[in-house]
Amino acid sequence: MKASGHRNYSKLGKQIKKKLIDHNMTAKELADALGTTPQYLNKILHGERSGEKYIQAIREILWSISF
To answer: In sequence order, which residues have a C-beta less than 8 Å from that of residue 39 and are 6 or more positions away?
Structure first.
């Protein structure tokens, strides 16, 4: 963790955050759709957890949405 208390996103986390922004979706909405907690999703975004169980579902949700 940085001295300022802010953590960096992992490469995957950055991709997910961009897709969330692109689709005007919150991390909480994604967590709800995945059936996990926002806290656990945050750990995935920051690379503290692999999120292996959720990666395919995240791709299906965020990369298949079209507006």
So the answer is: none
Tokens of 49: 């957890």
**Cβ partners under 8 Å of residue 2, min gap 6:** 8
**Whole-Å CA distances, 22 to 11, 15, 34, 52:** 17, 10, 18, 23
Which DSSP string corresponds to 17-57?
A: HHHHHHTT--HHHHHHHHTS-HHHHHHHHTTSS--HHHHHH
SS3 (DSSP) at 1: coil
Q: CA-CA distance, 67 to 28, in Å (whole number)?
A: 20
Residues of the chain scoring pLDDT < 50: 1, 67
pTM score, whole prediction: 0.84
